[in-house]
Amino acid sequence: MTAPLNHSAPITVEVALGDRGYDIVIGRDVLASLGERVARLRPGARTMIVTDRTVAQNWLEKTEAVLSAAGVAHGRVVVGEGEASKTYAGLEQVSEALIAAKIERNDLVIALGGGVVGDLAGFAASILRRGVDFVQVPTSLLAQVDSSVGGKTGINSPQGKNLLGAFHQPVLVIADTAVLDTLSPRQFRAGYAEVAKYGALGDEAFFAWLEANHAEIVSGGPAREHAIATSCRAKAAIVARDERETGERALLNLGHTFGHALEAATGFSDRLFHGEGVAIGMVLAAEFSAERGMMPASDAKRLQQHLAQVGLPTRLQDIAGFQQEGLADADALLGLMFQDKKVKRGKLTFILMEAIGRAVIVNDVEPTPVRDFLARQLARA
Ligand SMILES: NC(=O)c1ccc[n+]([C@@H]2O[C@H](COP(=O)([O-])OP(=O)(O)OC[C@H]3O[C@@H](n4cnc5c(N)ncnc54)[C@H](O)[C@@H]3O)[C@@H](O)[C@H]2O)c1
Ligand SMILES: [Zn+2]
How many CB atoms lie under 10 A from the CB of residue 296? Predict the structure, then answer.
């Protein structure tokens, strides 16, 4: 698998969902085309940009300028950054701003930000006047390869993540790869875990390409566009076949059952970003699969080595503060997994692996072997 040699024309990935289908436009500086594209898609529509403070500092001025240049009317609502805004309070702030701006059924909400802004703005759009369309302008790597595609929107409840939400597909996704240059290296790496996930779950050739090209993805060469486009194609294909996650879409949760438990155990704090939890979670899923005799141990090792080489945490012991503060014990971690959505009648659903590039949904995992496996992982030096 080879990547294009230079930054060329934008890559367009189509999400084939019939009359709810849409384009994902990927490339350096594609943000400059947002105004024209919106004007063409929805002539005369007014827009409201939802963003967070950090993204606003870096990218709001440019976004407003390209909308103005195309004659698109725009307002703005700026929320605080991070999960603290994916709440009832954040939803209230955004919804009231949309109502005050008189955004109507034919207008557009523009989500300019990472996954938090995308989930929040998309959910607000889905309930405003029983549904207003929205455009995703994802600004984090995680949002460009994952959260902006597929139509899951929502907020957190004090009782758990993403418990309130709706399926609401965007009408357009603009993924400007140059926007990622202002993302912190740690946030970039966290998003990279989701890129590697697509290779690990369904595309060995892509995984091998990542092993050879990860440095250029980080530095911002053309490999970055190729990695993002390949990831979006993988997600778009799965979503087109299983929009509402009745089957195959669950494969996208590789690493997430372990990962969510670790995020919860660290209080959804800066100790562990979502993508970092996914990196550790994928390695745990791979090693658990190897232990069950489903996959060669060498494949689990290969996955761990690649993620570690990129600078991601891959062990429980890599979690910030693990040595000082420890982590929940194996029973508590298991309890956190049971709070997840993926439990049916006392058995856990896991995404396990048969090889790099071949993940499978296993519905009937008994809790005891998982607890024993976690206890051994926690006891590692
Ligand atoms: N809807 C879905 O399908 C889906 C899938 C995966 C994750 N998610 C959700 O996405 C969220 C995580 O997304 P995230 O990692 O993007 O988090 P985020 O939106 O909090 O962004 C991470 C941080 O990076 C900053 N940032 C974003 N873009 C920047 C840029 N270009 N320059 C400088 N700073 C920038 C943000 O201000 C924030 O502080 C979680 O809430 C998760 O539940 C949703
Ligand atoms: Zn994820």
Answer: 15
Q: Is 274 a catalytic residue?
A: yes
Q: Kindly give the distance from the C-alpha atom of residue 266 to the centroid of ligand 1, in angstroms, as a whole number.
A: 18
Instruction: Cite the residue boundaries of each domain of the chain with CATH code 3.40.50.1970.
Output: 11-182
Residues of CATH 1.20.1090.10 domain(s) within the chain? 185-378
pLDDT in tens, 226-243: 999 999 999 999 999 988
Task: Spot the catalytic one: 213, 253, 263, 306.
Answer: 253
Going by the DSSP 8-state scheme, the letter that residue 25 receives in this structure is E
Q: What is the pLDDT of residue 21?
A: 92
CA 306 to chain CA centroid, Å, is: 20
Instruction: Report the separation in Å between the CA atom of 190 and the middle of ligand 1, taken as the mean of its atom positions.
Output: 10
Top-confidence residue, 160 or 356: 356
What confidence tens digit (pLDDT) does each residue in 317-376 have?
Answer: 999 888 777 787 899 999 888 876 666 677 889 999 999 999 999 998 999 999 999 999
Global model pTM greater than 0.85: yes
Tokens of 226: 């190729």
CATH class label, 11-182: alpha beta
- Annotated active-site residue 7? The verdict is no
What percent of the chain clears pLDDT 90, i.e. is strictly above it? 85
Gap between the Cα atoms of 272 and 266, Å rounded = 7
CA–CA gap between residue 96 and residue 269 (Å, rounded): 28
- For residue 40, which phi and psi values (nearest 5 degrees)? -75, -40
Does CATH number 1.20.1090.10 belong to domain 185-378? yes
Phi, psi of 201 (to 5 degrees): -85, -25
256 labelled catalytic:
yes
* Rounded Cα–Cα distance for residues 329 and 348 (Å): 18
Between the CA of 193 and the centroid of ligand 2 the distance, in Å, is: 8
Residue 109 host element (H or E): strand 108-113
pLDDT at 115 exceeding the cut of 90:
yes
